[in-house]
Amino acid sequence: MNKSFSLTRRTAVRLIGGATAATLAPFPMNAAEKESDAILRRAIPSTGENIPAIGLGTWQVFDVSEAPNERGPLKEVVTRFVQLGGKVIDSSPMYGRAEGVIGDLLSELHLREKLFLATKVWTSGKRAGIESMERSLARMKTKRLDLMQVHNLVDVDTQFATMRAWKEEGRVRYLGITHYVDSAFPEVEKIMRREQLDFLQINYSIIDRKAEERILPLARERGVAVLINRPFASGDLFARVRAKPLPEWAAEFDCKTWAQFLLKWILAHDAVTCTIPATANVKHLEDNMAAGLGKLPDEKARQRMVDYVAQL
Ligand SMILES: NC(=O)c1ccc[n+]([C@@H]2O[C@H](COP(=O)([O-])OP(=O)(O)OC[C@H]3O[C@@H](n4cnc5c(N)ncnc54)[C@H](OP(=O)(O)O)[C@@H]3O)[C@@H](O)[C@H]2O)c1
C-alpha cells in the first residue's frame, strides 16, 4: 500500500468509521441482547477494523505454573473475557511464562480465532529478534499474531525492519511500539514521526497524565491506534482509592466502582483505542469489562474526576 493511499484511508476512517465507532452502544435494552454486543468498540485508524476498548494485560498475573490452582483462575478469566465481548490480549516474551499460558488456554478453550493477540519483541540484533518472534508464535500456538510491538523501544530500527517483512508475509497483521514511563516520551515521539505505526502502547492514567500533552494528540494526528497500559498505575491506584467513597456523581456516567471510574476516565480520551488492565481475578475482570458499557464522562466530568482523585 502506498503512503498517500494509507494516509487517505486513515483520514477517512477517522472521519467516518472512527466517529461512529467511538459512539457508545447503550446498555442492553433487554435480556435477549448480549452483553458482548454492547461493549464500546473503537476503530484501528490504519484499517478501520473495530476492536473492543477493554482488553486484558498479562504482566505478572499470567506468569504461572501448570498447577490447577494457578491455571484455573486464568482459565475462568479468559473464558469470561470472551463471553463479555473482550478480544485484545497483550503479552510479551519478557513476562516469564505468560505467552505459553495464553497459548495453552486458547488451544484448550478453542478461542484463538475469537481473540486479537498482541505480543512484543524485546531483544537486540536481527537474528535474536527473529528467534524471539518465532518463539512467541510457538508459545502462543498460532501461525499469525495480530499485533507485534517493539517492547520498550529496544533496538527499534532493527526489529521494525523484520516486523515489516513479517507483515508483508502475513505473519503479523499490525506493527507497533511500546513504553511504560514518561521519560521515554521524547524518543517515542521521534519514532512516531518517522515510522507509520499501526499501534502505540503507552502508559496513561488519572495520576499519570503526561501522554495527553503531546503523545495522544500526535497519535490522533498520525492515525495511530493507542493501547493504554498501566491504567491502574500497575495496581497502585487501588491503594489510594480503595477505602474512599466513590463520588455519587459517578453514576451520571454509569460508573459503579473505582475500577470503572479509572478505566472510563481513560476511555473518554478520544485518541485512546483500547486499554489493557491486567487481572487474574474473574470478579475484577467482570468489573473492568463493565467500564466498556454505558456513558463516558465528558471533558468537564473528566476534570472533576482528576480533582477528586488528587485530593484523596
Ligand atoms: N512496556 C510495556 O510494554 C508494558 C509495561 C507495563 C504494562 N504493559 C502491559 O499493560 C498491562 C497492564 O499494566 P499493568 O499490569 O502494569 O497494571 P494495571 O493493569 O494498571 O494493574 C494491574 C493490577 O491491578 C489489579 N486489578 C485489576 N483489575 C482490578 C479491579 N477491578 N479491582 C481491583 N484490582 C484490580 C490486578 O490485580 P488482580 O489480579 O488481583 O486483579 C493487578 O495487580 C500489562 O499487564 C501489560 O500487558 C506493557
Q: Topology, please?
A:
Blueprint: H1 3-21, H2 35-38, E1 41-43, E2 50-52, E3 56-57, H3 68-83, E4 88-90, H4 98-109, E5 116-121, H5 126-139, E6 145-150, H6 156-169, E7 172-178, H7 185-194, E8 199-203, H8 215-222, E9 225-229, H9 236-241, H10 258-267, E10 274-275, H11 282-290, H12 299-310
Parallel strand pairs: 3-4, 4-5, 5-6, 6-7, 7-8, 8-9, 9-10
Antiparallel strand pairs: 1-2
Helix pairs in contact: 3-4, 3-11, 7-8
The structure holds NADP nicotinamide-adenine-dinucleotide phosphate (NAP).
Q: What does this entry look like structurally?
A:
The protein has 312 residues and is an alpha/beta fold. The protein contains 12 helices and 10 strands. It has helices spanning 3-21, 35-38, 68-83, 98-109, 126-139, 156-169, 185-194, 215-222, 236-241, 258-267, 282-290, 299-310; strands at residues 41-43, 50-52, 56-57, 88-90, 116-121, 145-150, 172-178, 199-203, 225-229, 274-275. An 8-stranded parallel sheet has the order 3-4-5-6-7-8-9-10. A two-stranded antiparallel ribbon has the order 1-2. Helix 3 runs parallel beside helix 11 and helix 7 (185-194) packs parallel to helix 8. It is globular. The model is unreliable at 1-9 and 11-33 (pLDDT under 50). NADP nicotinamide-adenine-dinucleotide phosphate binds at residues 57-59, 61, 90, 151-152, 178-180, 201, 229-235, 238, 259, 276-281, 284, 287-288.
